[in-house]
Specification:
Helix 4 links the parallel strand 4 and strand 5. The protein is built from 9 helices and 8 strands. It has about 240 residues and is of the alpha/beta class. The protein is globular, with a radius of gyration of 16 Å. The chain has an 8-stranded parallel β-sheet. It has a single domain, classed as TIM Barrel (Alpha-Beta Barrel). The chain binds D-xylitol-5-phosphate and zinc ion (ZN).
Length: about 240
């Protein structure tokens, strides 16, 4: 059993690190989640894939609930890479996640879905693929957004190469959100590592999701390396 991760100080006073369970050993998800939390993670990122929006199928609300139950109140957020995410909000709320992020590409009625997530008492997030532009339209969603997730790989698989253009996109999201008075989290997901963590934070990222860079090898040392990379560049 882990203690809650809420007391873990933000990296350089502003950034959260949220390991993606996609890269963990699925045969011992609870232990893998707790290992990351005990090693200094701020919460966990659950990648839900449906075989339709993205080719692979991972897990749904029941398995996510098992992780929530195993981690004693820690933050678990669901990243729904699924079509018709509105059909799953209630199940994930019951599973005990803190936040749900849906893809703009899957939601013709994005404003309504974000409202549905908020009505369920959860933090509402919008994810955008590398090929989806960031536009001023974000301003109209600001009252309903707790998190914007900028994908820096095409969703579907862990271990892909970071798409450099994502840095500029993070900056653009951050400019728009700040211009319209939002203090929503700016999350980056895909190919995050010690090599790009500080640059992402400098461009405005406040939440970093990392799968392979956390779970491949020594989890504690990996988490330390990401934190150190940010602290070294941002705390001067
Ligand atoms: C990709 C997922 C990511 C993925 C990140 O579709 O949304 O969360 O697990 O994995 P890495 O950090 O290995 O790129
Ligand atoms: Zn993800």
């Amino acid at each position: 059993m882990s203690t809650s991760s809420n007391d873990t100080p933000l990296i350089a006073g502003k950034v959260r690190l949220l390991p993606s369970l996609l890269a963990a050993d699925f045969s011992q998800l609870g232990a893998q989640a707790n290992l990351a939390l005990e090693s200094g993670a701020h919460g966990l990122h659950a990648d839900v894939m449906d075989g339709r929006f993205v080719p692979p199928i991972t897990f749904g609300a029941d398995i996510t609930k098992a992780v929530v139950d195993a981690t004693n109140g820690a933050r678990v957020d669901a990243h729904l890479m699924i079509v018709e995410p509105e059909r799953q909000i209630e199940a994930f709320a019951k599973a005990g996640v803190r936040g749900i992020t849906v893809h703009a590409e899957t939601c013709p009625h994005l404003h309504r879905v974000l409202g549905q997530i908020r009505d369920a008492g959860l933090e509402a997030g919008v994810a955008i693929n590398p090929g989806t532009p960031v536009t001023e339209v974000l301003r109209y969603l600001v009252p309903l957004i707790d998190r914007v997730l900028v994908m820096t790989v095409n969703p579907g698989w862990g271990g892909q190469k970071f798409i450099q253009e994502g840095l500029d996109k993070v900056h653009k999201v951050s400019r728009i959100l700040h211009a319209y008075g939002s203090d929503a989290w700016i999350q980056v997901d895909g190919g995050v590592s010690p090599a790009n963590a500080a640059a992402l934070a400098k461009h405005g990222a406040t939440e970093l999701v990392a799968g392979s860079a956390v779970y491949k090898g020594d989890v504690k040392a990996n988490i330390e390396a990401i934190k150190q990379a940010i602290e070294t560049e941002l705390s001067v």
